[in-house]
Amino acid sequence: MHDYLISALILLTVSVVGLNSVALYIPATHALYESLYHTAELLAGVDMSTTTKDFISSHGYPAEHHHIVTEDGYVLGVFRIPYSHKLKNQEKIRPIVLIEHGLMGGSDIWFFTGPNHALPYLLVDSGFDVWVGNSRGNTYSRNHISMSTEDPDFWKFSWHEIGYYDIAATIDYSLQVNGQGHQAVHYVGHSQGTTVFFALMSMRPEYNAKIKTAQLMAPVAWMSNMEYKLVHNLSPYLSNPYNLFTRFMENMEFLPYNKYVLRTFANVCGRDQIFRPVCVYLINSYYNSTRWNNVLVISQRDVPAIK
């Protein structure tokens, strides 16, 4: 019974947060809100001006931020580590590897554990030309040649379009910019990053020739056998394209990312906050903690010192 109650609470939260198609809009003149939640931003420790490029360059690696336009007009923010400053291999042949994030993720997540552990660093230090993608709609890919994020049609896409357009564009762009005559890339995907890969390879089979190898972590193709409680509890509401909830949410951003949302979460789930035990309970209830790396030790030098 408690699973259904939690699912109902999640649905209610998503509905409230999604009332605005892009983000929660709170005027800058709203002094009361600012005064109440100013400390929460400090508590969250979030600097929204820090980018993936900052994480990369803070450790001495060359970092590039590219903007790739897809066939249907979305502008993707993609990051590149072209070579290793440790190997000084910028004049050597460097195979291309494209890394794609999972659901509700982005390029940042690949770098948090630092050069001694994070996959992009390990790959570039092994001689690869590393590209880290961002799918349409996330923090780094919120532009379009003719639509703004205020336009409901901007959000009218799924993993199908991400695979068909975004991954295809990123592969083609990386092959061109690398300039070393490569005809194919190595692909690394996690979760949704595998689903979009399957979609591209199935719907545009010519792209199979542009893949050397594919490393698919937590691959998702058919979800009927998933043990994930959140999927099973929400699927009756989200799988029917004609019900009220799906029609209400189909053209809206899921969990908008802005400082007000971050501050709200910080006040609810931050350390020493009264509702933190509830947040921990939800995580333990819906995520399989046996698959977490609880023994990873990250030294202070692994954490980027960004002001």
Q: What best-fitting shape do the alpha-carbon axes yield?
A: globular
Number of helices: 10
Note the main sheet: 7 strands, mixed
- Please count the beta strands (DSSP E, at least 2 residues each): 7
List low-pLDDT spans: 1-5, 8-46
Q: What is the beta-strand fraction?
A: 5-15%
Quote the average pLDDT. Answer: 80
What does this structure look like?
The protein is of the alpha/beta class and 307 residues long. Helices cover 36% and strands 12% of the residues. It has 10 helices and 7 strands. It has helices at 2-17, 31-44, 52-57, 119-124, 159-178, 192-203, 229-238, 244-249, 259-269, 276-286; strands at 64-69, 74-81, 96-100, 129-132, 143-144, 185-190, 211-217. Strands 1, 2, 3, 4, 5, 6 and 7 form a 7-stranded mixed sheet that branches. It is globular and about 55 Å long. The chain starts with a helix and ends in a 21-residue tail after the last helix. 25% of the residues are buried. The model is unreliable at 1-5 and 8-46 (pLDDT under 50).
